[in-house]
């Protein structure tokens, strides 16, 4: 990701760590995330960072969302995003 930003005048780095909690788990799979506490048994309804395939699922979602911008003015690695602009004056537009 760092090599892809070489030669760009403006960079904005964003961390999407709370984005994992925005992705809904399929209702049929909620039961598979069950855990027990002294107060009862609970299941996740949204993806948690600690789930086995959470990183890969989130990466695929980001690639699908930013598909038309990837490797042009956006770079994405798991939960980190970089918006890059060759010229500083283009950066506000690239951020939209």
From TrEMBL:
Signal peptide: none annotated. It holds the Pfam family RVT_1. Residues 3-94 form the Reverse transcriptase domain. InterPro entries: DNA/RNA_pol_sf, Rev_trsase/Diguanyl_cyclase, RNA-dir_DNA_polymerase, RT_dom. SUPFAM superfamilies: DNA/RNA polymerases (SSF56672). This is Reverse transcriptase domain-containing protein.
């Amino acid at each position: 990701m760092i090599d892809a930003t070489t030669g760009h005048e403006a960079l904005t780095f964003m961390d999407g760590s709370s984005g994992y909690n925005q992705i809904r788990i399929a209702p049929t799979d909620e039961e598979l995330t069950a855990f027990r506490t002294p107060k009862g048994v609970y299941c996740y309804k949204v993806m948690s960072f600690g789930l086995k395939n959470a990183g890969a699922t989130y990466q695929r979602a980001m690639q699908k969302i930013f598909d038309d911008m990837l490797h042009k003015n956006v770079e994405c690695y798991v939960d980190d995003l970089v918006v890059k602009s060759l010229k500083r004056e283009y950066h506000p537009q690239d951020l939209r």
